[in-house]
TrEMBL record:
[2Fe-2S] cluster binds at residues 78, 83, 119, 123. Its cofactor is [2Fe-2S] cluster. This is NADH:ubiquinone oxidoreductase 24 kD subunit. The keyword Iron applies. It comes from Lentimicrobium saccharophilum. Binds 1 [2Fe-2S] cluster. CDD domains: TRX_Fd_NuoE. PANTHER family: BIFURCATING [FEFE] HYDROGENASE GAMMA SUBUNIT (PTHR43342:SF1), NADH-QUINONE OXIDOREDUCTASE, E SUBUNIT (PTHR43342). Keywords: 2Fe-2S, Iron, Iron-sulfur, Metal-binding, Ubiquinone.
């Protein structure tokens, strides 16, 4: 596994040293390390010759760029009005009870983090959750629980 500094250098070489490279570099770090550490943000600022505050501002603005450690599997439940009307609260409550965590928390074994998202673009098929990069539409509490149990059993 690469050190954070080596990872940043590799991503900068791949994506370039311009301001436009910032997002792909940050996304690459999250893909590898599952969050953006302070060390990573400072390395990016140095490599791209940007102010650290500028890099942190970008990182903290975007929901999918985590600046705190997250679990191996990140569960995001859509919280739009459409998903709300179709039962997203029951989905969240079921997952929260099963995983014994609240929204924003990570399980003790670091397998799951439970979050909400503003919109996943599946309003016609709500309620919807995203686990890592996989979309799960038309959920019921039972269906959501079964999906998460499969992740718990597997090596996802």
């Amino acid at each position: 596994m690469l050190t954070t500094e080596a990872l940043v250098k590799e991503l900068v070489e791949k994506n370039g040293r311009t301001r436009n490279s910032l997002m792909p570099v940050l996304q690459g770090i999250v893909q590898q390390e599952h969050f953006l550490s302070e060390e990573a943000l400072l390395c990016v600022a140095r490599e791209l010759d940007l102010a650290a505050a500028d890099v942190y501002g970008t990182a903290s603005f975007y929901t999918f760029l985590d600046t705190v450690p997250r679990g191996k599997n990140i569960i995001r439940v859509c919280k739009t009005i459409t998903c709300h009307m179709k039962g997203k609260d029951e989905i969240i409550n079921t997952l929260s009870n099963a995983l014994k965590i609240k929204v924003g928390e990570t399980t003790h074994d670091k397998k799951f983090t439970l979050l909400t998202a503003n919109c996943l673009g599946w309003c016609h098929k709500g309620p919807v959750m995203l686990i890592n990069d996989e979309v799960y539409p038309e959920l019921t509490p039972q269906k959501a629980l079964e999906i998460v149990e499969e992740y718990a059993k597997s090596t996802h």
